[in-house]
Amino acid sequence: MTTSTVFALETMDVPGGTETILRGGRHLFPLLPRALAGVRRIGVVGWGPQGRAQARNLRDSLAGTDITVAVGLRPGSASAADARAHGFTEEDGTLGDWLAVTADSDLVVLLIADAALAAHHRKIFAALKPGATIGLSHGFLLGHLRETGGDFPPGHGVVAVCPKGMGDSVRRLYEQGAEINGAGINSSYAVHADPDGNATDRALAWSVALGSPYTFRTTLESEYLSDIVGERAVLLGAVHGIVESLYTRYRLAGDDGTTAYARSCENITGPIARTISRAGLRAVRESLDASGRDVFDRAYTATYGPAREIVAEIYDEVADGTELRSVILAERRLGTRPMSRIGGSPMWSLSDRAHARRDERGLPGGPVDPFTAGVFVATMTAQVDEFAERGHPWSEIVNESVIEAVDSLLPYMRARDVAYMVDNCSRTARLGARRWGPRFQTAYEQIAYPAAEHPADRALLAAFDTNPVHEALASAAKLRPAVDISVG
Predict the structure, then answer these.
(1) How many other β-carbons are positioned within 10 Å of the β-carbon of residue 424?
(2) Residue 362: is its pLDDT beyond 70?
(3) Out of 85-89, 90-94, 173-177, 357-361, which region has the weakest mean confidence (pLDDT)?
(4) 162/84 same-domain check
(5) Same domain, yes or no, for 349 and 454?
(6) CB neighbour list of residue 486: distance below 8 Å, 6 or more residues apart
(7) Is 138 considered catalytic here?
(8) What is the pLDDT of residues 89-143, one digit of tens each?
(9) What's the structural domain count of the chain?
(10) Together in a domain, 159 and 59
(11) Would 348 be classed as within a structural domain?
(12) DSSP-derived secondary structure letter, 171
């Protein structure tokens, strides 16, 4: 059972029982020094999207305490100027060489790219001061260590705090939290090693300082599996496959390009995402009339099986190290060369025109398109069910499969489009989305859409209606701040 000597934990009802969670908020900031007892310096190594957001959030939350937040960068890093622009400087000791910052810090938060961390973790481990806590926001390093026969150094705490959203979301919602207490991105946390008995409170303090509305427990292995699978499936890869395949379907059916774009990309990132965020998965179907429900039902039951098969395949390849090896091999192959972009297919040339139509109509995306909704909800439910069958906790399932999508990533996709998001996410996520997105697209075009011409499978619909995810989402919704992310 999870306990804290500092924070008041509470339980959340989930299918089959309860889970212990921490409800966040700025009223908890005065407790941070106590929860971080023994930590006088936090080193954030890396200045990618997560590093930039987390370093700033930690610094702002700890303002007025005797805990310093410093940023460590590799020599010659192009990110140094941006870090200075955000107030981290060599002069005041809050910006420095990555290994020097590591050596001086009591909590070292490792936020460099996955492949770089895999390549350089031995240097970082060797630089750690005695007893320092290692902090991660992703379990990728654990997977790499297991794959290579390595391990974390003994005598050091190892914790993870993993925001369920992209770095820009972590910062933007934190800033919104200055006006609406509790606004932020949910986080999971894991305690992998706890030699001094203080790891849980340190992890919870880290999450509170990031502005997480609620924090739930997982393991480093479970987080790694769900996170890597999720970004290859419904968070990024599958979304790309869905919108490309639907655009083609609607064009072949006679829609002009802008309408086909609106029915696919605009509909998922607008009314479908908003409905799920506010009212849950069942509400999407319930928003349709009888004719629309029939279309939804046929699309849902035709899509669920093919989507579930691919999610299960991704999961197996992540679990056995295949996906991890593919990322590391790709990094070696690409080096510093930029990756080619996916935004060149015909539909993405219509993005600006579709966005203009949205503005002209004054609508957030129009009504839910029943076929698009059936395909998307089936894919999301397939991931939920695969995670549940693999034994993941329900907080993790709904955050990695639903909440992160509809409250963080899809709003950004709506503002900029899906192709932009795939081309500008982390290298690990980008590689995975590019590998698996076409697999989903092919499965939908060749298997699901032809099957959708036949009557719906009533057993699959009954399973959807009684799925435990609805109960889990209803519990999570009680903790949702009354604010939507501002994407600028």
Answers:
(1) 16
(2) no
(3) 357-361
(4) yes
(5) yes
(6) 172, 176
(7) yes
(8) 999 999 999 999 999 999 999 999 888 898 999 999 999 999 999 999 988 899 8
(9) 2
(10) yes
(11) yes
(12) H
Residues 6+ apart with CB under 8 A from 207: 22, 24, 161, 187, 189, 215
8 Å CB contact between 160 and 135:
yes
Q: In 3D, which of 156, 93, 92, 146 has the Cα closest to residue 124?
A: 156
Q: Are residues 245 and 356 in the same domain?
A: yes
Among the candidates 192, 216, 240, a domain finishes at 216
Please give the pLDDT value at position 363: 44
What local confidence, expressed as pLDDT, does residue 483 receive? 66
Question: Is 457 assigned to a binding site?
Answer: no
Please report, for the domain that includes residue 147, its CATH number. Answer: 3.40.50.720
Based on the fold, state whether residues 211 and 340 are members of the same structural domain.
Answer: no
SS3 468: coil
Q: φ, ψ for residue 370 (rounded to 5)? A: -65, -40
Tokens of 274: 């908003």
pLDDT at residue 482 in the model: 66
Q: Is 256 annotated as a binding residue?
A: no
Question: Residue 138: inside a domain, yes or no?
Answer: yes
Q: Is residue 291 within a helix (H) or strand (E), and if so which, with residue range?
A: helix 290-319
| pLDDT for res 325 | 87
Is position 3 within any domain? no
User: Do 247 and 202 reside in the same domain of the chain?
Assistant: no
d(CA 27, CA 43): 24
Q: Residue 304's domain is classified under what CATH number?
A: 1.10.1040.10
Please name the residues in contact with 431: beta carbons below 8 A apart, sequence gap of 6 or more.
326, 327, 330, 339
pLDDT per residue over 304-353, tens digit each? 999 999 999 999 999 998 988 888 888 788 777 778 888 888 888 888 88
Helix (H, G, I), strand (E, B) or coil at 73: strand
> Could you give phi then psi for residue 6, rounded to 5 degrees?
-120, -50
Question: Residue 206 pLDDT > 50, yes or no?
Answer: yes
- 298 — pLDDT class (breaks 50, 70, 90): very high
Domain boundary among 169, 184, 216: 216
485 lies in a domain? no
pLDDT above 70 (res 360)? no
Counting residues of the chain whose pLDDT is more than 90, the rounded percentage is 74
* Dist CA 340 CA 352 (whole Å): 21
Q: List CB contacts of 455: < 8 A, sequence separation 6 or more.
A: 298
Catalytic residue among 138, 192, 355, 392: 138
pLDDT for the residue numbered 359? 55
Range of the domain at 287: 229-477
Pick the closest to residue 242 from 303, 164, 165 (CA basis). 303
Are 51 and 103 contained in the same domain? yes
